[in-house]
Amino acid sequence: MSVLLESYVLAAITFYLLAFLVILVARYAILILYSFMDHIEGLYGKREAPAPKYTDDASLPMVSLVVPAFNEGLVIQAAIRSLLELDYPNFEVIVVDDGSTDDTYEKAIAVAREQFEIPVRVITKRNGGKAEALNTGMAAARGEFILNMDGDSKLSNNTLRACIKHFENPRIGAVAGNVKVINRENIWSRIQALEYVEGLAMARKAQSFMRSVNIIPGPLGVFRKSVLQQVGGYDHDTFAEDCDLTLKLLMQGWHIAYEPLAIAWVETPSRLLDLLKQRYRWTRGILQATSKHSDALWQPRKAGINCLILWYMLFEGIMWPFSTILGNLFFAYVGVRYGLATLLFYWWLQLTILDVVAAAYCVIIEEEEPSLIFYAVMFRLFYINIIDISKVLATIEEWRGQAMTWGKLDREGKL
């Protein structure tokens, strides 16, 4: 490469990285601002709060809790028992055994026979995937509202009361819950605990201010049954059925709220390989879901805020990991070639400062462990680089149409 051409390439990359940094700072600022505004609304009431509809226990509608389970024998009993302790007067539990090859069905039946006050039904079917299991639960549900969760989730006792109040607004089609990590026993799971607080909870609080949460998490989402039926339930053609369903609701004009007080405690990967498999699947699934609704990317007038949501998802899924890796390689090259190694440090430092500020804000708002802030440094030092490489590889393989499998996480029974 000639000196002149190299200078043009380096200048172009420099300009690109500066533009990316400006966008990234703006993203952090907007998310913090909007999440704080949503937090204030939670304290003092929503802007369009209608007259209270559910004023006492007798007026509370029935909710069907659907628990899809495939080989969840290690955790299914703890998950069901935690549901039976929920503070809500009118609900049922439906466990859908999706053709498990372990003792999931037997253990679920055993718990169902232990109690009589709360209806617990266990349905078994041939293995067809999580989407089909959730649709089976939807068809069997008797409630006006449906709470979908994962077989390894443990919900906070106030979950149903906290979520159901949002449906007093007739424009709300679904409510996303707050997902937190329960198995905080090593560096990988503790960094994920911070990631869930900073990367997921903050974004959902900001999006909730606009009533446009872009992903209702699999571990905790509450829906109007009529809305689920209207959009045809879950589809089978992506590896992120929760993201795909959320986009379908948004495209149909439904508002989606976020309830930070409704918490789903989940077990996250504690080994690096399991973590990479999970993020690989998430990335490809989200790309598949956005591809299904890609028409909205180029129709801002028709799609409205949904156009912005899709571009935001592509920024986080493609541009952000690609730019982080490019920046590290660029500054490493410049450091070796021109003796400017300090540029790599400053690039890392400015991103770390953003992470620490966001982490501190989120830990305070979420009333989380202050020690999680420390993990923001390790998050930027090595964790995010590993995850970004996984995301870039997943993006390339999705673009090439390479086949993939679900890659279910092996549970350790931390609930």
Kindly summarize this structure in a few lines.
By secondary structure, this protein is α/β, with parallel strands linked by helices. The chain has 2 domains: 3-39 and 297-400, no CATH class; 51-284, Spore Coat Polysaccharide Biosynthesis Protein SpsA, Chain A, CATH 3.90.550. It has helices at 3-44, 76-84, 104-112, 130-140, 159-164, 187-209, 225-230, 241-251, 272-292, 300-303, 305-338, 342-366, 375-400, and strands at residues 63-69, 91-98, 120-125, 145-148, 154-155, 172-181, 221-224, 255-266.
What report would you give on this structure?
It is found in: Membrane. It comes from Noviherbaspirillum galbum. Keywords: Glycosyltransferase, Magnesium, Membrane, Transferase, Transmembrane, Transmembrane helix. Belongs to the glycosyltransferase 2 family. The structure is a single chain. This protein has 415 residues and is an alpha/beta fold. It folds into two domains: 3-39 and 297-400, no CATH class; 51-284, Spore Coat Polysaccharide Biosynthesis Protein SpsA, Chain A (Alpha-Beta Complex), CATH 3.90.550. The chain is 55% helix and 13% strand. The protein contains 13 helices and eight strands. It has an eight-stranded mixed beta sheet, sandwiched between helices. α9 crosses α13. It is globular and about 80 Å long. The model has no long low-confidence stretch (mean pLDDT 90).
Proper CATH architecture of the largest domain:
Alpha-Beta Complex
Q: Give the biggest beta sheet.
A: 8 strands, mixed
The fraction of residues assigned to DSSP E strands is: 5-15%
Class derived from helix and strand content: alpha/beta
| Share of helical residues | 40-55%
CATH superfamily of the largest domain: Spore Coat Polysaccharide Biosynthesis Protein SpsA, Chain A
CATH level-3 fold name of the largest domain: Spore Coat Polysaccharide Biosynthesis Protein SpsA, Chain A
| Secondary-structure element pattern, one letter each | HEHEHEHEEHEHEHHEHHHHH
Instruction: Write down the overall geometry.
Output: globular
Which sequence of strands runs across the widest sheet?
3-2-1-4-7-6-8-5
Number of helices: 13
Distance between the terminal alpha carbons, to the nearest Å?
Answer: 57 Å
CATH class of the largest domain: Alpha Beta
Number of strands: 8
What is the CA-atom radius of gyration, in angstroms? 22 Å
Unreliable runs, pLDDT <50, ≥5 residues?
Answer: none
How many distinct domains?
Answer: 2
Query: What is the residue-mean pLDDT, rounded to a whole number?
Result: 90
Protein name: Beta-monoglucosyldiacylglycerol synthase
Family: Belongs to the glycosyltransferase 2 family.
Main location: membrane
GO molecular function: glycosyltransferase activity
